[in-house]
């Protein structure tokens, strides 16, 4: 019974801490929708496999939100017709590459300058890799049907494959001119849309927090840290810890500070790079963007990449 | 239903802020943000209520909204009441920081956390032998040792709570129960533990106290 009460309190802590950040993210996305209806600039973002994710990552500096707030903004990018590469680059890199997270990392580890370069560098590499891997899937297997439908509305017909179309002419298509500049939607409609998005995400956040709180209560954290000194095991255990704990990327550096002395440097970096991209709380939120198969692919690819990164850092520094 | 669900989540955030529940859940830095978000959500709900009820055709409510609204009601109804010793038991007790303390209070004014930080930065037990101690905390049972008096440090939310504890030499008689909050007066002494000398608080006066309003330390 006591365990249950503790899990309930951890659940409330995670949920109440994340809700304001979710609201900030939805507010940024709604504001973008209101200020730039139709999001013509979104469609002009680069499609290049390398330049796209890099541009997306750079957007993180302009929109300082942690990973929960990132999901609605990334959804807005995709729904507005932004290239998938750019949106994925933003989704995976922006939780680390933003001023708040970099400042908190520096505040937590002022005496480890390598980390200040390695964390954003690692996050950027990981985002590039994930964008490349996920791009192998066709859009229909990558994005959820609801998002795909919204995205089609803001894409020129000529860019949509025949099989992906719901309407339009069959046959040779000349590059159709873009529709006339859409007018600014009424404020009431933007509020309605934003509220809808917030409630959808809140439901998924609840699911993620339930899983994270349950696993945390049942799995003693000391087990995960018991293998701190062994290079490979320590990287693996800290990766698992990052997935389970699910704290916000703006404060995870302070949490890592608590056990930085006991573990290998590679494991520390793995914790700081993997947590903002894959954790139990996020897996629920990703459901508004990605199909289950794409989420599984993200988790698998990110885990392998972070393991290699951690090992490599251990080789260099140990 | 949309306005109702928004209002419910707004209420969850606002009630948690006003009732002091947040003191049990989150680090103080986040409290204003939570309260502000609650007010914003309630305002958003109020703005949309007339339009939603005036609409001729109601949109069907997604099932996930009903579920999350039910969770919001549960959060409102059941206040958090974590077991501190349970939280502490699941976590490693490492601070790994504050190699040097910037300032030092006189011994009798140091809190439990101050003492633990001091002992980690200058771990020479003989320096503190005989110092007066006045601390409060909860009872944290230890495997194969006497229970310690402990506090939880929280950077973000309960999910990252880290325990800090001080060994105590309890007076003769039954040992206190886990999770009980106590105020302890005594003196610092040195004892042998597993072949190493360590600082220990020799308790002279022990008084049960209610859980403090802000039990988590930054």
Question: What does the model show?
Answer:
The complex is a heterodimer of chains A (318) and B (218). With 318 residues, chain A is an all-alpha fold. Chain A has one domain (2-161, 186-317). Chain A has helices at residues 2-35, 40-43, 51-62, 67-79, 84-93, 99-108, 113-134, 139-142, 145-153, 187-218, 221-225, 231-245, 252-257, 265-274, 280-285, 292-317. Chain B folds into two domains: 2-81, no CATH class; 85-217, OB fold (Dihydrolipoamide Acetyltransferase, E2P) (Beta Barrel), CATH 2.40.50. In chain B, 35% of the residues lie in helices and 26% in strands. Chain B has helices at residues 2-18, 22-25, 31-54, 63-77, 84-89, 112-121; strands at residues 132-142, 145-153, 162-169, 181-193, 196-208, 216-217. Chain B has a five-stranded mixed β-barrel with strand order 1-2-3-5-4. In chain B, a hairpin with a 2-residue loop joins strand 4 and strand 5 (196-208). Chain B is elongated and about 80 Å long.
First and last CA, distance of chain A: 44 Å
Continuous helix count of chain A? 16
Structural class of chain A: mainly alpha
Major sheet summary line of chain A = none
Query: What fraction, in percent, of the residue positions of chain B are helical?
Result: 25-40%
- Cα shape of chain A: globular
**Strand tally of chain B, please?**
6
Name its key features.
heterodimer; A: 318 residues; mainly alpha; 69% helix; B: 218 residues; alpha/beta; OB fold (Dihydrolipoamide Acetyltransferase, E2P); 2 domains; five-stranded mixed barrel
Topology:
The complex is a heterodimer of chains A (318) and B (218).
Chain A: H1 2-35, H2 40-43, H3 51-62, H4 67-79, H5 84-93, H6 99-108, H7 113-134, H8 139-142, H9 145-153, H10 187-218, H11 221-225, H12 231-245, H13 252-257, H14 265-274, H15 280-285, H16 292-317
Helix pairs in contact in A: 1-4, 1-10, 3-5, 4-5, 5-7, 7-14, 7-16, 12-14, 12-16, 14-16
Chain B: H1 2-18, H2 22-25, H3 31-54, H4 63-77, H5 84-89, H6 112-121, E1 132-142, E2 145-153, E3 162-169, E4 181-193, E5 196-208, E6 216-217
Parallel strand pairs in B: 2-6, 3-5
Antiparallel strand pairs in B: 1-2, 1-4, 2-3, 4-5
Helix pairs in contact in B: 1-3, 1-4
């Amino acid at each position: 019974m006591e365990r249950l009460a503790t899990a309930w309190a951890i659940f409330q802590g995670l949920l109440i801490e994340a809700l304001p950040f979710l609201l900030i993210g939805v507010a940024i996305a709604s504001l973008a929708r209101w200020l730039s209806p139709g999001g013509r600039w979104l469609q002009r973002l680069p499609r290049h496999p390398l330049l796209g994710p890099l541009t997306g990552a750079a957007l993180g500096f302009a929109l300082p939100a942690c990973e929960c707030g990132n999901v609605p903004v990334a959804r807005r990018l995709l729904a507005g017709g932004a290239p998938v590469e750019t949106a994925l680059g933003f989704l995976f890199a922006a939780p680390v590459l933003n001023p708040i997270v970099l400042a908190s990392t520096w505040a937590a580890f002022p005496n480890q300058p390598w980390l200040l370069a390695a964390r954003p560098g690692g996050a950027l590499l990981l985002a590039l890799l994930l964008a490349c891997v996920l791009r192998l899937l066709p859009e229909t297997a990558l994005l959820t049907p609801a998002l795909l439908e919204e995205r089609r509305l803001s894409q020129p017909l000529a860019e949509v494959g025949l099989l992906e179309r719901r309407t339009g002419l069959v046959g040779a298509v000349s590059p159709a001119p873009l529709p006339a500049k859409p007018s600014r939607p009424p404020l009431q409609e933007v509020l309605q849309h934003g509220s809808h998005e917030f409630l959808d995400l809140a439901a998924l956040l609840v699911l993620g927090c339930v899983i994270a709180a349950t696993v945390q209560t049942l799995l003693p954290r000391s087990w995960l840290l018991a293998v701190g000194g062994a290079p490979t095991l320590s990287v693996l255990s800290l990766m698992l810890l990052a997935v389970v704990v699910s704290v916000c990327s703006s404060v995870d550096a302070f949490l890592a500070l608590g056990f930085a002395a006991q573990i290998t440097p590679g494991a520390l970096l793995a914790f700081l790079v993997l947590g903002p991209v894959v954790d139990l709380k996020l897996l629920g939120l990703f459901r508004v963007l990605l199909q289950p198969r794409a989420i599984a692919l993200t988790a698998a690819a990110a885990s392998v990449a972070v393991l290699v990164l951690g090992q490599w850092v251990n080789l260099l520094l140990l | 239903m949309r306005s109702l669900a928004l209002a419910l989540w707004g209420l969850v955030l606002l009630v948690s802020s006003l009732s002091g529940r947040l003191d049990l859940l989150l680090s103080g830095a986040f409290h204003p943000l939570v309260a502000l978000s609650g007010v914003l959500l309630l305002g958003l709900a109020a703005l949309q209520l007339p339009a939603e009820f005036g609409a001729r055709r109601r949109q069907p409510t997604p099932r996930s909204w009903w579920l999350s609204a039910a969770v919001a009601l549960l959060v409102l109804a059941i206040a958090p009441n974590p077991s501190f010793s349970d939280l502490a038991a699941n976590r490693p007790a490492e601070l790994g920081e504050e190699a040097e303390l910037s300032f030092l209070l006189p011994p009798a004014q140091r809190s439990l956390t101050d003492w633990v930080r001091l002992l980690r930065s200058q771990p020479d037990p003989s320096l503190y032998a005989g110092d007066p101690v006045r601390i409060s905390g909860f009872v944290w049972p230890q495997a194969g040792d006497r229970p310690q008096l402990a506090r939880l440090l929280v950077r973000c939310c309960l999910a990252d709570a880290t325990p800090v504890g001080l060994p105590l030499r309890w007076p003769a008689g039954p040992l206190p129960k886990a999770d009980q909050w106590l105020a302890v007066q005594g003196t610092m002494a040195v004892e042998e533990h597993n072949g190493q000398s360590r600082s220990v608080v020799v308790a002279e006066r022990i008084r049960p106290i209610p859980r403090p309003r802000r039990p988590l330390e930054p």
